Amino acid sequence: MKNLLQTIAKELVDYPDQVSVSEKEEEDKIILELKVAPEDMGKIIGKQGRIAKSIRTIVKAATVGVSKKVVIDIVE
Fold this sequence. Notes:
3 helices
């Protein structure tokens, strides 16, 4: 999941070397924290959050067999 999110994000931004993904596991969920350059926030979020929603949908589809909920946080 972490690698998938990182690959998607790197393809969308102008500064792929500043993309990083950290993973935290809790009891009932997995939190993926996506960090990008401040200049790239608009490209990751998109108009009305459409790109962010699409990214979350793709990652959710890739985690069908996982029993925990996957949450993606996008930060600068």
